[in-house]
Amino acid sequence: MIPSEKANPGIKQFFMPTRVLQDLPADRSYKLLDIGAAKERYLAGFLPKNIKYHGQDIAGNQEHNFDLNKFPYPLKDGQFDIIVCLETLEHTVYPHKVMQELKRIAKPDALFFLSMPNEYNFYCRLNFLFGKKTSMQLPPFGVVERMGHIQTPRVKDILDFFSGYMDIKEIDYRWHSRSSVHGKSRFVKETSIIIDRLIDNLAKAYPSLFARVVVVRN
């Protein structure tokens, strides 16, 4: 099963990973680690039966609870067939160290699905122009109090970062707005979803301006 945009338009970063995972050979078993799984553990509900799900987060009902900013991670070397880290690295203080740890705990031929938000999309640029911040951008001196978007990369920065750790085979550029998920009324949500679909098409042609999420796999 692949997640439906109509059911939850705010999880587009899962579309490409779930499509690829559904096509893996059914006669082999896989062990997957979902970094930054959050309490919703979205990915767990979209996996075929031959993939064993392990969630990680700093707290909550996960198989592995630890802080991504504290090293080394309490996990053995080379034990995961699949590493998923979606919309999480931007919250970390040491993203390079995080990637080094993820490579350590992954098998040599492991599949990686990684994503980060493009903090230079047109909405962020408009906010900056008018002296505003998005809800995830930290106020001055706010890093210690709240782990918001500590890293604020462009599309090019994201691709350069990920290509330093793996050969990128596929890139998925996506757009979705907060109002399509958290709109105060049904009309606002449905209108936002229609607009988001139009921008989503532009994201593939002009990712630096219209992509909100950049998803890659090896």
CATH superfamily: Vaccinia Virus protein VP39
The main sheet comes to: 7 strands, mixed
If strands are numbered along the chain, what order do they take across the biggest sheet? 3-2-1-4-5-7-6
Indicate the mean pLDDT: 91
Please compute the radius of gyration using only Cα atoms: 17 Å
Structural class: alpha/beta
Proportion of β residues? 15-25%
Number-wise, the strands total 7
CATH architecture: 3-Layer(aba) Sandwich
CATH class: Alpha Beta
Helical percent range?
25-40%
* Unreliable stretches covering 5 or more consecutive residues: none
**Overall morphology:** globular
What's the helix-strand series?
HEEEEHEHHEHHHE
CATH domain topology: Rossmann fold
Distance from N terminus to C terminus (CA atoms, Å) equals: 22 Å
The structural domain count equals 1
Number of helices: 7
Short note summarizing the structure:
Helix content is 29%, strand content 20%. The chain is an alpha/beta fold and 218 residues long.
Layout of secondary structure:
Blueprint: H1 15-22, E1 30-35, E2 51-57, E3 64-65, E4 80-85, H2 95-105, E5 106-117, H3 122-129, H4 155-163, E6 170-174, H5 179-182, H6 186-205, H7 207-210, E7 213-217
Parallel strand pairs: 1-2, 1-4, 2-3, 4-5
Antiparallel strand pairs: 5-7, 6-7
